[in-house]
Amino acid sequence: MSSNLTQALLELADDNLILGHRLSEWCGHAPMLEEDLALPNMGLDLIGTARTLYSYAGTIESNNKSEDDLAFLRDEREFLNCLLVERPNVNFAHTVLKQLYFSTFMKLYWNEALNSKDEIIVGVAGKAKKEMSYHIRHSGEWVIRLGDGTTESNKKLLEAVDALHIYTNELFFDTPNNIYFIKKDILPSRKALKSKWEKEINSIFKMAFVPYPEFEGELSGGRLGLHGEELGHLLASMQSVHRAHPGAKW
Amino acid sequence: MTKTTPLWEVFIRPRNGLSHKHVGSLHASDKTMAINAARDVYTRRNEGTSIWVVPSISITASDPDKADENFEPSEDKIYRHPTFYDIPEDIGHM
Amino acid sequence: MYSQGLINSDTQIEESQEFLDAFQARIDAEEKIEPNDVMPQAYKKMLVRQIAQHAHSEIVGMLPEGNWVTRAPSLRRKAALLAKVQDEGGHGLYLYSAAETLGVSREELTEQLVTGKAKFSSIFNYPTLSWADIGAIGWLVDGAAIMNQIPLCRCSYGPYARAMIRVCKEESFHQRQGYELMMSLAQGTEKQKQMAQDALNRWWWPSVMMFGPHDAESTHSDQSMRWKIKRFTNDDLRQKFINATVPQATFIDLKIPDKDLRWNDDKEGYDHGPIDWAEFWNVVKGNGPMARDRITARKKAWDEGEWVRDAAHAYAEKRRAEKIAAE
Fold it and tell me: Which domain holds residue B62?
């Protein structure tokens, strides 16, 4: 039954890679020079975590795959990231809000993962938890300033909440495959993190004058490989060079 | 013309035991953003363990025109330095 | 790098021959000039011009390489390239700060860039057309930049020299990552080799031109050397670059696109073929293939970022007002 730890690791790795990729799209186009340095810093943290997780996934269960095989040679349907991380950047409000949602979740997740019986996961968690703390601080401070800044920035932030909040419920989805590893104390439960996450987001939303969204419902499917249309374009770009030269070394 | 974002001076302590040293400057709208930016701009290669940011306008500098009267008077006070005093070599290190 | 209080105070002084000689004597004695020192207006002007141009080049330089960040063919290369492009932004920031010590604000400098008034290195007006261009830029463009930048660490103006020390320290990985990338292509498949050679063919001459016109035609060169802003002539640096680069190309079996290139025993350096100065001046004048796109991209980022900067200002303003009200 252990044959699906790969899947569980890919979910985590894909989340990190895709969001890291989205951040890298900002490089050279940020609202100020200081942010041209800050956004890649967060992107590099996420890409780094993705690499460790892919490398681990590639070595278990006689997969014998490299990090690049996993990142560059899988199709849309094989990517298991949640939908939130693949959402396009749109503008700075979308970007920092998405970052706040994700890093708040991942900090809670990695904090629990410190108790995993899998040493490699514990190692990743120890490093990534600290990185997520900074991402929360950076994106949270921005969310507060956009919310409590000008009428225009407040409006743009509210639009971003409206566009993105519906994707957040998927963060807490434990796939049947993951439940097996949760029971084995290898992975933490995502579902269990929801109330803490809501509390933390709410406390930042209060400072940003953003009413916590009341609506029910969710958009999900990423963990099953059912993505939005945007992911295909992201992958087409990301994988183009690698795939144009089969077997080549870089 | 766009509004100007305040300038901040950044000081980093490379490691505990050393004092904070001026490393450069950056622009930020307030102190929290300045600390974050300093972290992202000036500590990407393990440069430090602590950061200070100071609004540049808060620094008071000595007047360059008064450099002579400020600093030259100390030049001839050589009796403030240990080498001014002759101690026989036999005494050893003192 | 210094507070407004420390920024060059713009004191109007009579620039008598005596004053200019005394200033020159300080320079000759290798004394560093600091922001609040009195300095000839022409010295200040030359520095602002050069530092701003240098800073703009770093900022615009993010774009051609940024063009491939999302397509890097391995995760290792992706991380390295993202970190490198990020560094370029940092270097622009350090240099803008150095220019600010001379009394020009970041906003003024940015306005110059986005309105197309500023000059920047013409090399960035060429497009990056394949992944190998990333290797060629790191190897050749950063290689050429380093030749220029290392002597600038000893430049007579303190803040510029200090910024350059930081830049050079950080850049030490840039050229290596470019050459290593090129090497992996040159030792790769037939298609990869072709890609590498094609990139070298396109980037060689623009890199050689990066050092600027021949010494005889270089307008600011003499004064800049006298004031020790610049320490070597354009042709000296160009020669050093060619001498260093030719064996590196040979080592990875790539051919430099110059049929006149040959070793000259007498000068212990390579002779090279004629440089196409018509192309150089054309690109300098803003007719490079990507010139308009580069400015447009920076203008777009600046304009679209305005509401974000405004929000940060408004927030800071509110907190200040609250603090005053509470006192």
Answer: 7-91
In this complex, which of C71, C82, C306 lies closest to A238 when CB atoms are compared?
A: C71
- Residue C12 pLDDT > 90, yes or no? no
The answer to whether residue A45 sits within a structural domain is yes
Buried b (16+ CB within 10 A) or exposed e, A7-30: ebbbbbbbbbbbbbbbbbbbbbbb
The pLDDT tens digits for C81-135 are 999 999 999 999 999 999 999 999 999 999 999 998 888 999 999 999 999 999 9
Give the domain extent around A234: 2-211+218-244
Q: What is the per-residue DSSP string for A71-120?
A: HHS--GGG----HHHHS---SHHHHHHHHHHHHHHHHHHHHHHTT-S-HH
d(CA C124, CA C237): 20
A141 assigned to some structural domain: yes
Q: How many CB pairs under 8 A join A and C?
A: 139
Q: CB B61 to CB C111 under 8 A?
A: no
Average pLDDT of chain A to the nearest whole number = 95
| Token pair recorded at residue A43 | 């992107």
Contacting residues of B for A204, CB less than 8 Å apart: none
> Do the beta carbons of residue C33 and residue C99 sit within 8 Å?
no
Determine which of B56, B58, B65 to mutate to test the interface with C (most C C-beta atoms within 10 Å): B56
The token duo for A8 is 């569980």
C264 strand-pairing partners:
C269
What's the pLDDT tens digit per position in C265-320?
Answer: 999 999 999 999 999 999 988 888 999 999 999 999 999 999 999 999 999 999 99
A249: in domain:
no
Domain count, chain B: 1
The nearest CA of chain C is from the CA of B91 a distance in Å of 40
Residue B49's domain is classified under what CATH number?
Answer: 3.10.20.520
Q: In chain A, how many domains are there?
A: 1
Q: Report residue A41's pLDDT band, with 50, 70 and 90 as the boundaries.
A: very high
Q: Is residue B11 part of a domain?
A: yes
Q: Quick check: pTM over 0.90? A: yes
Q: Which of A99, A96, A106 is nearest to A147 (CA)?
A: A96
Domain-located, residue A78: yes
| Max CA distance (Å), chain B | 73
ipTM greater than cut 0.90:
yes
